[in-house]
Write a structure and sequence with these properties.
The protein is of the alpha+beta class. It has 2 domains: 77 residues; 98 residues, no CATH class. The chain contains 3 helices and 11 strands. Strands 1-2-3-4-5-6-7-11-10-9-8 form an 11-stranded antiparallel sheet, sandwiched between helices. The protein starts with a helix and ends with a strand. Keywords: Signal.
Length: 194
C-alpha cells in the first residue's frame, strides 16, 4: 500500500510539469515523458491542460489551475485545490462542515482518518469559538483547548472526543498567501476507539 506521503510525491511530480502541458501533440508527449521520468510511472496521459497518471494502484490528476486529485487502491485520497474549491472527503460528518464562507484547500482520507484544511476571512478567536460550539452541538466533548497570541498572529487549538470520531482542530492566522482568507483552519478526525 502506498502511503499518503508517496501519493503526495507523485502529485507534486505531476504538478511540476502540468504547466508545461500545452496545446498540441509534441507538448503533450514531452509532458508525459517528463512525468514518467519524475514519477517512475509509465501510464501518463497529458491532454490539453490536464495531466493524469495511473501507477502501482495510485491514480493522480493535476489540472492547469493547480488542482490535484490523488487516490490509491485502498481508498486513501488527497484532494488539493489552489483556488479553495476542494470537496469535503467522503464520510465527513455534515454536522462538522467548515464555516459557510470557508474555502477548502485540501481534503484527505487515510484509512479511517479524515482531514480538511480551509481558509476564510475573520478573527481567529471568533472562528475558533464558533468551531468549538459546533463540536459541542454535534455531541463532542472538548478535552482541551488553548488560544495563544504570538508575534505572527493568534494560534488556537482544541481536541475533542465524539460519538464516532475524535477531533483535533487548529485555527491560526494565515502566515502565507492570504488571497483565500486571513484565517486557516485544520481539522483532523480519527475514528473513535471502542
Amino acid at each position: 500500500m502506498r502511503t499518503t506521503r508517496a501519493m503526495a510525491t507523485g502529485a507534486v511530480a505531476l504538478a511540476l510539469v502540468v504547466g508545461g502541458a500545452g496545446c498540441g501533440a509534441i507538448a503533450e508527449k514531452a509532458t508525459e515523458k517528463a512525468v514518467e521520468k519524475a514519477s517512475g510511472c509509465e501510464d501518463i496521459d497529458a491532454s490539453g491542460e490536464q495531466v493524469g497518471a495511473e501507477c502501482d494502484g495510485v491514480s493522480a490528476n493535476v489540472d492547469a489551475d493547480g488542482n490535484v486529485a490523488v487516490t490509491d487502491e485502498d481508498g486513501n485520497s488527497i484532494d488539493a485545490s489552489a483556488d479553495g474549491s476542494a470537496a469535503l472527503p467522503e464520510g465527513w460528518p455534515a454536522e462538522l462542515a467548515p464555516p459557510a464562507d470557508a474555502r477548502i484547500t485540501s481534503a484527505t482520507v487515510s484509512g479511517d482518518d479524515l482531514g480538511v484544511t480551509a481558509a476564510l476571512d475573520g478573527d481567529v478567536a471568533e472562528v475558533f469559538s464558533g468551531i468549538k460550539g459546533q463540536l459541542e452541538q454535534a455531541g463532542y466533548t472538548i478535552e482541551s483547548d488553548t488560544v495563544t497570541d504570538a508575534a505572527e498572529g493568534t494560534v488556537a487549538s482544541a481536541t475533542a472526543s465524539g460519538p464516532e470520531h475524535d477531533a483535533t482542530v487548529s485555527v491560526t492566522s494565515n502566515y502565507g498567501d492570504t488571497s483565500l482568507g486571513s484565517v486557516l483552519v485544520v481539522y483532523n478526525l480519527t475514528r473513535a476507539a471502542g
